[in-house]
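Please annotate the following for my students:
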Amino acid sequence: MENDFSKGKVWKNIISQAIPLMLAQLVLLLYNVVDRIYIGHLPGADSMALTGIGLAFPLTTLVAAFTYLFGTGGTPLFSIARGAGEEERAERILGNTCSLLLGCSVAMFLFCYLLRRPVLYLFGASDASYVYADAYLRIYLFGTPFVMLSTGLNGFINAQGFPKTGMMTTLIGAVLNLVLDPAFIFVLDMGVGGAALATVLSQIVSCVWVLWFLTGKKAGHHIRRRNLRVDWKLAREIAALGMSGFIMQGTNCLVQVVCNATLKIYGGDLYVGIMTVINSVREILSLPVNGLTSGAQPVLGYNYGAKRYDRVCQGIRFTACMGILYTLLAWLVVIQSPHLLLSIFTEDAAMLEAGTDALKLYFFGFFFMAFQFTGQSAFTALGDSRHAVFFSLLRKAVIVAPLTMILPKMGLGVDGVFWAEPISNSIGGLACFITMYLTLYRRLKREDEADAAVAGH
C-alpha cells in the first residue's frame, strides 16, 4: 500500500523513509568507493591511479548534475501532486521525467566521450595520470543512460511509499559491483578499466530493476506510454525545481575542476590523489545526513500538498536537530581517526602523511553542513525553487571556487584549498538555514495558526 504521510508521527514517517534511503545511498557509494579502494591498492600504481580517478570525477559529477536536474525536480512535484490527490498529474510528471532523463543521457554520453581527452588535460591531467583517467572513462561513460535512469527514477519509488524497493535498486547493483570489481581488476588483470566495466554492468542491472517496478503491477503510479511525450510546460516546472540539485552537482563539478587544477600547481599529482581520497571520505560521512534530508522531502512535500503545515514544521525541526547531532559526531571521528579513514583508500606513505593534516582542515566545522542540508531540502520539498537554486549557487560557485584560487596565493599554498570548504560551509550553511527559517518556516507557522483559528470558530 502507498503511504499516507499525513498520518502517524512525522518523525516516524521521516525515519521510515530515511533508513532505507541511507542504506540505499550507502550501497550506491559502493559503486564508486569500492572502485577507489581497489584502485588505491593496485600493485605498482602508487598514488597515480587514484589521481587519474580524481581527474575523472568532474565528468561523472556533470552526469550526476543532469540526473538531479530532472530526478530531484520531478520527485517533489510528484509528491505534492499525490498529496493533493492529483493522480493523473503525478503520472504525467513521472512519464515526462523518464523521457527527459533518457534524452539527456544520450547527449551527455556523446559530449563526455568525444571530448574526454582535451577536457581531462584542462582539468589538470598530466601525461602519467591521463592514462588512468582515460582507461576508466572510456568504459564508464557507456553506462551513462543506465545510471541516469536508475538514479533519476528511483526517487519515484520512494515517493510512493516503497523505500525498501528503492533500496533494492542500489543494493542489487552494488553487490554485483562488489563481486565483479576484484574479478575484473585482479583476476582478469583489467586494472582501472575493469573497475569501470564492473560499474557499468551493475548500473544496467539497477536500471532494469527500476523500470520493471515502475511499469509493473505493484507500483501505484506507472510509467505509461501516453505520458512519455514531453509536455514542455511541465518539463520547465520539473527543471525549475530540479535546478537546485543541478546547480549543487554542477558547482561540485566546478569546485572539483578548480581544486584539481590548483592542487596540480601547488602540490602536484600527489595532492590531486589526496583530494580524491578526501572526497571519498566526505561522501561516506555525509551519507546519513543526506539520507535523512532526502527521506524528509517526500514527507514534507506530501503534508504541504495536504495543507498540514504543522506537520511540515515538525518535520523541519526534527531534520535539523538530528542532522546537527550526527555531523558533530562525524567531525569528532575525523579529529580522532584521520589516518584510519585515509588508509581505507591507500597504502601510499606519502599520501597518508600529507593527507592527515589536509583531512582535518577540510572537515573543520563539519556540523555547519547540517544547516545547508536542512534548509536546502525544505526549499526543494515545498517547491521553492528560487531559494533552493540561490543557496546551491552561493556556497559552491560564489564562496568555495573563488577561495580555492585565492587562499593558496595568500601564502597558504595547498592548505588554502582545504580551508575553502569549512569557510563555505559556515557562511553558506547558516545563510541558507536562517533564510529558510525567516521566509518559509515562519510563514508555515502563521498559516497553521490561521487554519487553527478558523477551525476553532
User: Anything to note?
Assistant: The chain has a mean pLDDT of 83.
